[in-house]
Design brief:
mainly alpha, Arc Repressor Mutant, subunit A, Tetracycline Repressor, domain 2
Length: about 200
């Protein structure tokens, strides 16, 4: 196996970024590796030098996005904040992360359930782990009496869905910055789960 050089890493990243844009614009199934090569000014064979298949590119994009989101949320999830504050902050982190790399999250939402085999299983396992971390925050809020008694995993899925699907309707036409949108969705999530006084 050939050593991975800085040049190899750079070219792989260039291919990933070009593919991400095309998958988001046209759809994964409607894009082929020749389209990616043309977009980048390369020959198709050059793509195969770095990735054996289009599915490999998709997996790397979605896995990378999921890991980056989990890493960004980790400090909040591990903090000493109250469950309500933790939920608010993790929603803000999630929305910011999604809107700052909207193309990859559009691809993720559209393709994650169509992925098969070990790669699909890996992606869904990682996603499930994140859902369960958010559900633990909700369960802690139920224990301290601050959040309503609805199954925590169901609540986590609703909240994460709200955070993910913002990529399909958010635009500057919404007249809210990414930070304002993150705050607004966090407010909706907390208000929707908080136990009435």
């Amino acid at each position: 196996m050939r050593p991975i050089t800085e040049s190899t890493r750079s070219r792989r990243e260039e291919i990933l970024q070009g593919a991400k844009q095309l998958f988001a614009e046209r759809g994964f199934r409607e894009t082929n590796l020749n389209d990616v090569a043309i977009r980048l000014g390369l020959r198709r064979q050059a793509i195969y030098h770095y990735f054996e298949t289009k599915d490999e590119i998709l997996f790397e994009l979605i896995e990378g996005a999921g890991h980056a989101l989990a890493r960004a949320a980790q400090p909040v999830l591990d903090s000493d904040l109250t469950p309500v504050e933790k939920l608010r902050e993790v929603v803000k982190v999630h929305v910011r992360h999604v809107l700052n790399d909207a193309d990859v999250f559009r691809v993720q939402v559209n393709e994650i359930n169509k992925m098969t085999g070990d790669r699909g299983d890996t992606i869904r396992r990682n996603q499930s782990a994140y859902v369960h971390r958010v559900a633990e925050v909700i369960a802690d809020g139920q224990k301290d009496g601050s959040l309503v008694e609805v199954p925590p995993v169901a609540q986590a899925l609703v909240i994460i869905g709200m955070c993910q699907w913002v990529v399909f309707w958010y635009s500057s036409a919404a007249q809210l910055s990414i930070e304002e949108m993150a705050n607004y969705i966090a407010q909706l999530a907390v208000n929707g789960t908080r136990r009435p006084d």
